[in-house]
Automatic annotation (TrEMBL):
Swiss-Prot/TrEMBL keywords: Coiled coil, Membrane, Transmembrane, Transmembrane helix
Chief subcellular location: membrane
GO MF: formate transmembrane transporter activity
PANTHER family attached to this UniProt entry: FORMATE TRANSPORTER-RELATED, INNER MEMBRANE PROTEIN YFDC
Regions annotated as coiled coil: 7-34
One term under GO cellular component: plasma membrane
Topology with respect to the bilayer: Multi-pass membrane protein
Annotated InterPro entries: Aquaporin-like, For/NO2_transpt
Domain of life where this protein originates: Bacteria
Subcellular compartments: Membrane
Protein name listed in UniProt: Formate/nitrite transporter FocA (FNT family)
Spans through the membrane: 73-98, 110-131, 152-176, 202-224, 231-251, 271-293
């Protein structure tokens, strides 16, 4: 018995020593990564930013977001939800104007020309939109400057604010549109039905790709400096979302919520099902395909050269 106790004690000491060694190696590796990121040289004004420079700027911007007060984040998120509603205003107006004059499928494709408006307002106005921030807010966690819990809390605040702002805009526009004669409830129902008229697995995968594209948008915006280039980037990425019918959790929320207000055929369960799948897919696409891959590509390059 005494011998077994001694062996167990020896094993525990060996395990503790191994864990300490691994922790020391991880700490050393992290110092190398941080040094490389912080030491990345700035490129010339007329040259594109390097991978390391973009990553450093993204982590710095994300850290600033983490340091903001919850009330500030929440108000900025509500603002983003309201502003993205201007895309919905234009979607309904264009559909109403061209409906009957063109094939319905063609009208849905034409919507891609006005869909980017809300995103341009959000990004240039520095409001906080969940899908545009997903990959960005993942980077400090990967860089071990923030915890997963802190990231999830921040996501919760941003999502809540975006959805509330979207609900407010939906209520305003659904009241105003018919009274201005720019669209009617039939248009609202048609658009909502088009969004939810897919199998759950299709919505999920579609939302993953949409989140991937929005994460790339955040990355690309960090690589350019002038406003015109930023507008072009936003227009290109978001018009692809609209033209291909990919599912975006925030503007999609406004579309389906509005349809639920105007039709008994779109139930609360339909809305909740769509919203949960769209949020999950957008988060996964942005965090994994952009945040993780972009960060790990930089880290592997550093480690392999050491």
């Amino acid at each position: 018995m005494e011998k077994e106790d001694k062996n167990l004690e020896a094993d525990l000491k060996k395990q503790a020593a191994e864990e300490k060694r691994v922790a020391a190696e991880e700490k050393k590796k992290q110092k190398v990564i941080d040094k490389e990121i912080q030491g990345t040289k700035k490129t010339g004004k007329d040259l594109p930013k390097s991978h390391g420079e973009i990553l450093r700027d993204q982590i710095s911007d994300a850290q600033e977001t983490y340091e903001k007060s919850p009330s500030s984040l929440f108000l900025s998120s509500i603002t983003a939800g309201l502003e993205i509603g201007f895309s919905y205003l234009m979607i309904c107006t264009v559909f109403f104007f061209f409906g009957g004059r063109m094939e319905e499928d063609a009208v849905f494709k034409m919507i891609s020309l006005v869909y980017p408006l809300g995103f341009i307002l959000v990004v240039l106005g520095q409001s906080i939109l969940f899908t545009e921030q997903t990959a960005l807010l993942t980077l400090p966690v990967l860089n071990k400057k923030q915890t997963i819990g802190a990231m999830l809390r921040l996501w919760g605040i941003v999502i809540s604010g975006n959805l509330i702002g979207g609900y407010m805009m939906a209520l305003i526009l659904n009241w105003l549109g018919p009274r201005l004669g720019i669209f009617n409830s039939e248009v609202v129902i048609t658009i909502a039905s088009h969004v939810v008229d897919s199998a759950p697995q299709v919505i999920l995968v579609s939302a993953i790709i949409a989140g991937w594209l929005m994460g790339l948008l955040s990355w690309l915006l960090a690589s350019v400096r002038d406003t015109i280039s930023r507008i072009v980037m936003i227009f290109l990425i978001t018009s692809v979302l609209a033209f291909t019918g990919l599912h975006h959790s925030i503007i999609g929320s406004i579309e389906v919520f509005s349809g639920m207000l105007n039709s008994n055929e779109i139930s609360l369960l339909d809305y909740l099902s769509f919203q949960s799948l769209a949020l999950l897919g957008n988060a996964f696409g942005g965090a994994i395909f952009v945040g993780l891959i972009k960060y790990r590509a930089f880290v592997y390059n550093i480690i392999s050269n050491k």
